[in-house]
Design a protein that fits this description.
Shape: globular
Strand order of the largest sheet: 3-2-1-4-5
Strand content: 5-15%
Order of helices and strands: EHEHEHHEHEEHHHEH
Number of helices: 9
Oligomer: single chain
Length: about 270
């Protein structure tokens, strides 16, 4: 295991949080598939079971999640079973002491972070169409802070922890990314993982109308990945945002290892 800040060890290389099962696959499944293909240990934490979904059942959703996890090559997948539709960074704080810490949603996420100790944490972006998506961003961001606070207690207890880096992934919102990850080589894997959620993403006669299950949903999501890929000269890309300034020790080596086709406004010759 590699060293974390403060001399403690990292566990997973990457851990992504999703408000509902299928959110991570749809919007950052390419990154997780690529990391797994490179030998990194990856995981997903679903905050809820998606019990308020207009389609499918909890049983089929669980089966679909298991299948998608296998396709992505995940090391870990857990569900915190927080209430769908009520994701809230303050949830549980109304409980009386000493039960408050144990039941607070933030404490649940802090416990996971301290136990799994991921090097990279991948979180939904703060501006989204779905209220649960925005709430998930606030919840995990809050937990990331308190995971490093020694006196913030969880059940079971865990040592303070701070990840190496936090990446935010846009869902339906078109945000300006800090960088784009080339996922072309694993795009078939991402697509296969998304299709595991047949009850949610595939159009079906007589099924309730939903955005993700509409006839144009999957093609529009692929168009999104093609759009971001085109920004760096590849077929498919996924956008990520970092909130702090990134630093480079060796810019020459960085750009050698991350060399992409120049945009059209940089002509190769005159």
């Amino acid at each position: 295991m590699s060293g974390a800040p403060g001399g403690t060890a990292y566990g997973l290389e990457a851990l992504a949080f999703g408000p509902h099962p299928d959110d991570v696959e749809l919007f950052c499944g390419g990154l997780l598939a690529k990391l797994a293909s490179q030998g990194h240990r990856t995981g997903i934490i679903d905050l809820s079971r998606g019990e308020k979904s207009s389609r499918g059942t909890l049983e089929t959703r669980a089966e679909e999640t298991q299948a998608a996890s296998k396709v992505l090559g995940l090391t870990v997948r857990e569900n915190l079973e927080l209430p769908d539709g009520w994701l809230n960074p303050w949830a549980g704080f109304e409980a009386p002491e000493p039960e408050r810490t144990r039941h607070a949603a933030v404490a649940r996420v802090v416990e996971v972070l301290r136990r799994l100790r991921p090097e990279l944490v991948i979180v939904p972006w703060e501006e989204e169409r779905h209220p649960d998506h925005e709430a998930a961003s606030a919840l995990v961001t809050r937990a990331l802070f308190f995971a490093g606070v020694r006196k913030f207690e969880t059940e079971p207890p865990g040592a303070p922890f701070t990840p190496r880096q936090v990446l935010y992934y846009p869902l339906r919102h078109l945000a300006a990314p800090s960088f784009v990850v080339d996922v072309t080589s694993v795009y078939a894997t991402k697509t296969a993982a998304v299709h595991c959620y047949a009850s949610q993403v595939l159009p079906r006669p007589g099924a309730p109308a939903t955005l993700v299950g509409s006839a144009l949903s999957l093609s529009s999501l692929e168009a999104r990945d093609r759009f971001y890929g085109a920004q760096v000269g590849v077929a498919h890309g996924e956008p990520y945002i970092v909130r702090e300034m990134l630093g480079l020790v060796d810019p020459v080596e960085h750009f050698r290892r991350n060399s992409f086709e120049k945009p059209l406004f940089f002509p190769q010759s005159r």
